[in-house]
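Worked example 3 (structure in, sequence out).
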């Protein structure tokens, strides 16, 4: 016979291959909205500090620990929205818990303006918007934790970012948010919460200037206000400046980043410890650091901080100096060794700490903000 089973096999193989490829391609296109990008980041620590606890139920403690793990889902919802859901797994006083760190939707197709709604890190300065694994140093600056608390200013909010029509990048962000931050809006003595249904307001204005192909300068200013548990206002104000240099040629091996950020809070209605009645509680802090990349995978960094600038009516002046050496085999892994010298004038002796951190990311992690 002219047609045999042997002669038909090549044609059947080609036909099946084409059909499988076609079905797979359609499934990939059709299934993408239902299969968001997934990434997991985890941080591990080895700490030795003169003031840290030896009891693992009290944080921070010496020895080995899992600092945090983040699970992030990211996807375009449709042609108009993208969605992010990020969950943090961390230890608190010996107990592990999972919290929705950021869960929000954001517009993608409206010209010159972006709307965002959900729970997320608010645009108060530069550091407050960073996740733990993206911190320039292993720990947050003193002003961040002492003024805003361990979680920073993270709340349910609705906001908009507008591109201002100027020759350089200029962005104005306004946000209305729930007053859920206990460090800023609750009464720590009576354990009362801010008035129900009240909303805080925040604004940030930042400008980015380019100097040729190698350097950029970013200037930012932020302010916020909201009613606290006393029915009075808690006000925040700050500024930040960031200089980045990376040569267009050889930029894989050399880079320089300098950042300075200042934040000040005025919490009205706190009782004056001196007994003179109701008084405003004022606290301010500044941190400045330099990062230098001197080889393809190596960074060296230095940071200086002060809490209580220009004056601190809440607690004695607090200073800290940090040095860090970082080794990054790729964009998905990093190892950092940090030394801290911290002087809290409320304590009899300064603290010396050495910390080793590993930072690993798996999955399709979206790029961080510039």
């Amino acid at each position: 016979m002219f047609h045999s089973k042997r002669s038909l096999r090549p044609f059947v193989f080609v036909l099946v291959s084409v059909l499988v490829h076609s079905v797979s391609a359609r499934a990939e296109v059709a299934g993408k909205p239902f299969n968001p990008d997934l990434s997991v980041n985890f941080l591990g620590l080895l700490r030795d500090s003169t003031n840290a606890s030896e009891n693992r139920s009290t944080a921070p403690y010496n020895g080995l620990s899992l600092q945090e793990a983040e699970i992030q889902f990211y996807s375009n919802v449709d042609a108009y929205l993208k969605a992010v859901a990020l969950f943090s797994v961390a230890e608190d006083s010996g107990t592990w818990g999972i919290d929705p760190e950021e869960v929000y939707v954001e517009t993608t197709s409206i010209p010159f303006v972006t709307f965002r709604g959900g729970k997320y890190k608010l645009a108060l300065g530069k550091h407050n918007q960073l996740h733990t694994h993206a911190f320039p140093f292993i720990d947050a600056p003193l002003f961040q934790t002492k003024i805003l608390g361990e979680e920073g200013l993270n709340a349910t909010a609705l906001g908009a970012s507008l591109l201002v029509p100027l020759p350089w990048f200029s962005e104005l962000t306004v946000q209305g948010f729930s007053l859920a931050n206990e460090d800023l809006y609750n009464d720590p003595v009576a354990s009362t919460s801010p008035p129900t249904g009240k909303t805080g307001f925040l604004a940030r204005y930042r400008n980015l200037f380019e100097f040729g192909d190698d350097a950029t300068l970013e200037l930012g200013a932020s302010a916020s206000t909201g009613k606290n548990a006393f029915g009075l206002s808690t006000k925040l104000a700050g500024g930040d400046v960031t200089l980045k240099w990376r040569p267009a040629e050889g930029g894989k091996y050399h880079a320089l980043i300098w950042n300075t950020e200042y934040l000040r809070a005025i919490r009205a209605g706190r009782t004056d410890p001196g007994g003179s009645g109701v008084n405003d509680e004022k606290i301010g802090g500044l941190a400045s650091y330099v990062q230098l990349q001197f080889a393809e995978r190596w960074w060296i960094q230095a940071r200086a901080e002060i809490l209580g600038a220009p004056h601190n009516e809440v607690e004695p002046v607090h200073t800290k100096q940090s040095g860090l050496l970082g080794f990054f085999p790729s964009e998905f892994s990093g190892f950092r060794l940090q030394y801290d010298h911290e002087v809290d004038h409320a304590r009899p002796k300064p603290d010396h700490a050495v910390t080793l951190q590993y930072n690993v990311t798996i999955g399709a992690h979206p790029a961080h903000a510039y």
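Notes: The helical segments are 5-31, 142-148, 182-185. The chain is about 10% helix and 55% strand.
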